[in-house]
Amino acid sequence: MSLSPRAAGAARVAGTSVAAVVLSVAASHTALACSIGDFTATALCDAHDNGVIRVTDKDASGTPAKISLYLQLSMPGGERWSDTQTIQHPTAEGTSVDLNPQGWYPGVSYRVHVQAGDQVDADITPLVVIPDVTCGAAASASASVSAEPSTSSTPSPASSTTPSATPTSSPSSTESSSPVPAASSAPSPAGGGTHLADTGASNGTTAFAGTAAALVVAGGGIAITLRRRTTTRASR
């Protein structure tokens, strides 16, 4: 049965409308589909001043995503798992999650892998490289580690000067406390002479004084006798 021209035109219009709706639905589904381009990863310091790798998912479809972090080792193809987190309800505005790296050292690289349903199973590119930025917690740990060997291996100025000061002061204190023989005030043995500092009268001094007095008296007597003889001779 053939269709009239009017019916054929109406059928063409209806088919075109259906095709447009199908294409529109397919386009909207494609726009909402999760892809690796919805994910970004950045190394930064969080609100608690800890070094983290923050992954942000801007997925309008809301597909849950599993995020895994791997530390890249120096050997070719070597890596080590560090942390895994899940973004349960991503939004078009962006939902973030923080992953904890095993080491926060400038230049260290991490690989971030994403699994989102059956739509995404890929790595975020490029690799995340830790910048030359030290977060507070890492800085405190580094300072304590660097200070420990310096205090245990390097002698302090006070300890280095103590051994030399001790022997120097010890002999001087010994010399000052020991008696000096030359300064002794005890009388010397017999025949050893008389000390100039002695001012008291001894037995020897008394004897000398008596002898001198006797000599004075004798001298006076001799002078009187000689004068009398001279006077007697003159009178004759």
Describe what this molecule looks like in 3D.
By secondary structure, this protein is of the alpha+beta class. Helices cover 42% and strands 23% of the residues. It contains 4 helices and 7 strands, in the order H-E-E-E-E-E-E-E-H-H-H. A 4-stranded antiparallel beta sheet has the order 4-3-6-7, with no helix packed on it. It has a 3-stranded antiparallel beta sheet with strand order 1-2-5. Strand 3 and strand 4 form a beta hairpin. The longest helix is centred in the C-terminal third of the chain and has 33 residues, at 203-235. The radius of gyration is 59 Å and the shape is rod-shaped. It starts with a helix and ends with a helix. Mean pLDDT is 72; it is low at 20-30, 141-184 and 188-199.
Can you count the beta strands? 7
Integer average pLDDT: 72
Structural class by helix and strand composition: alpha+beta
Q: What portion of the residues fall into strands of 2 or more residues?
A: 15-25%
Low-confidence stretches: 20-30, 141-184, 188-199
- Write down the overall geometry: rod-shaped
Helix content: 40-55%
Terminal-residue CA separation: 223 Å
Strands of the biggest beta sheet: in what spatial order? 4-3-6-7
Strand/helix succession: HEEEEEEEHHH
Query: How many whole angstroms does the radius of gyration measure?
Result: 59 Å
State the helix count.
Answer: 4
Q: Largest sheet, if any?
A: 4 strands, antiparallel
